[in-house]
UniProtKB/TrEMBL annotation:
Name the UniProt record assigns to this protein: Trace amine-associated receptor 1
Cellular location(s): Cell membrane; Endoplasmic reticulum membrane
Taxonomic path: Eukaryota, Metazoa, Chordata, Craniata, Vertebrata
Similarity remark: Belongs to the G-protein coupled receptor 1 family.
Domain G-protein coupled receptors family 1 profile: 44-301
InterPro entries assigned: GPCR_Rhodpsn, GPCR_Rhodpsn_7TM, TAAR, TAAR1, TAAR_fam
Keywords on record: Cell membrane, Disulfide bond, Endoplasmic reticulum, G-protein coupled receptor, Glycoprotein, Membrane, Receptor, Transducer, Transmembrane, Transmembrane helix
GO MF annotation list: trace-amine receptor activity
Length: 329
């Protein structure tokens, strides 16, 4: 529960949540930083969507995963983050209980969907780099559509089902009613069981992501070594440079993902077991750190990858980090 500041979200109502007594000198920079994050998230993902829609050579089955991810992150930046910004700065929610549940459900759904998309992209890259001869057979249009549908439906069922049925409160109802619930608040609350279940939305896709990208890294390294052994001296230097670039991209992909989401999910799973002693402001900061993953996604997955053959159908905007027409990037 928020600490008492002497101000209330609704001054005339009994049981109102307390409001943060932040001066304008703090509120303005906070709103500016959050507004900038929202703008970059919306514009970056909108640019990815527009690029794939405009360039026919980018309209491949593989890039449907990127397109779906960009739509997910765009919705998060356009609809969830603005409401969260007001709540984060003032500590109050003025849109009512139903809208609070809708916002919370959408927040959990889109964040989980974004994470799930990243794991499916790692699966796609695994087959493209490590099983290239079977790639077209396994990663067909139908497979991609199943991945996209799963990335949306599973988080939606989980998030809306849990919040609107109040399964997130199960086992801690009395504590929530006594210590957390108040008029004008919209704090996301998880019982220990709900926190563990929600954490699986991160740990399982995260485990898939890190395992597959490490496998991709080692396969790409071995292939680069083979090329180096069979090539001339001039080609050796070029292949080494490209191998290092591929390894750096993988480190960025995995590093950004875990840097953004690990702190929040560690806090999520620990907080119920330490009697919810994590300060709300700190927990909210970790939520925004997770949001930034949607800000960085179009940069990491799209603009980090260069495309040599933009006029060929073999070019995939973000999903061919190692090979285009058999050539190591």
């Amino acid at each position: 529960m928020q600490t008492t500041t002497g101000l209330f979200c609704y001054e005339s109502l009994s049981g109102s949540c307390t409001r943060y007594a932040r001066p304008l000198s703090i509120q303005v920079p906070m709103f500016t930083a959050m507004g900038l994050a929202i703008l970059v998230t919306v514009m970056g993902n909108l640019l990815v969507i527009t690029s794939i829609a405009h360039f026919k050579q980018l309209q491949t089955s593989t890039n449907q995963l990127l397109l779906s991810l960009a739509v997910c992150d765009l919705l998060l930046g356009g609809f969830v983050m603005p409401c969260s910004a007001v709540r984060s700065v003032q500590g109050c929610w003025y849109l009512g209980e139903f809208m609070c549940k809708l916002h919370t459900s959408t927040d959990i759904m889109l964040s989980s969907s974004s994470i799930l998309h990243l794991s499916f992209i790692s699966i796609d890259r695994y087959f493209a780099v490590c099983r290239p001869m079977r790639y077209k057979l396994i990663i067909s249009n139908n497979t991609v559509w199943i991945m996209v549908a799963t990335s949306w439906l599973v988080p939606a069922i989980f998030a809306f089902g849990m919040i609107f049925s109040e399964l997130n409160l199960k086992g801690r109802e009395v504590f929530y009613e006594t210590n957390v619930k108040c008029v004008g608040g919209c704090q996301v609350f998880f019982s220990p069981m709900a926190a563990v279940a929600s954490s699986f939305c991160f740990y399982i896709p995260g485990f898939i992501l890190i395992c597959l990208y490490f496998k991709i890294y080692w396969v790409a390294r071995a292939q680069a070594k083979s090329i180096k052994d069979l090539s001339r001296q001039v080609r050796e230097a070029d292949s080494g440079r490209r191998a290092r670039r591929g390894a750096n991209i993988l480190a960025i992909v995995v590093g950004v993902f875990f840097a953004c989401w690990c702190p929040f999910f560690l806090c999520l799973i620990i907080d119920p077991f330490i009697l919810y002693s994590v300060p709300p402001q700190f927990a909210d900061t970790l939520v925004w750190l997770g949001y930034l993953n949607s800000t960085f996604n179009p940069i990491v997955y799209a603009f980090f990858y260069t495309c040599k053959n933009i006029d060929t159908k073999s070019c995939h905007l973000p999903t061919r980090p190692f090979y285009i027409k058999g050539e190591l990037l």
